[in-house]
């Protein structure tokens, strides 16, 4: 809960004459980007609840949009906080590809199919999501293995040099902002 967190500590920086102009230039650039931003926030009464949270709807919509634009899904992730276990720790949730692909192709079908019971398929995501939130996800464990090998001067295990591993970890879609 937010109430149990300590208030943030203000940090003071002393900028020397060599860096101060660069910081000021970056500030002006950021201010110009913020001035050019259009932001619209809305709520839809038909979305939400424990079964289908709004962020899940948006993530699936992003997957479908990517599929429509490129004809395939891409490696995607949603960084999530593990603050219950360790303050500042994060891990990655990956959407389940087969259901996302099935939905994207179904939504791209020119003639929608009607009937068939109308029941939603079971959601395969809860178990992996629960494991990640408990600190048992594979992403950070693999990162730890990689870092341990590098720190110990050991060669990287073959998994980390496999092209499929590099492809699976090149996230073209990251829903951190969701």
TrEMBL record:
- Which intervals hold domain Choline/carnitine acyltransferase? 5-178
- Show the GO cellular component annotation of the record: peroxisome
Q: Which UniProt keywords apply?
A: Transferase
Q: Which GO terms describe its biological process?
A: carnitine metabolic process, CoA-linked
Q: Which residues form a coiled coil?
A: none
Q: Which InterPro entries match?
A: Carn_acyl_trans, CAT-like_dom_sf, Cho/carn_acyl_trans
Question: Which SUPFAM superfamilies does UniProt cross-reference here?
Answer: CoA-dependent acyltransferases
Molecular-function GO term, any one: carnitine O-acetyltransferase activity
Pfam families registered for this protein in UniProt = Carn_acyltransf
Q: Which Gene3D superfamilies match?
A: Chloramphenicol acetyltransferase-like domain (3.30.559.10)
According to its UniProt record, which protein family does this protein belong to?
Belongs to the carnitine/choline acetyltransferase family.
- Know the name of this protein? CACP acetyltransferase
**Source organism of the structure:** Ramphastos sulfuratus
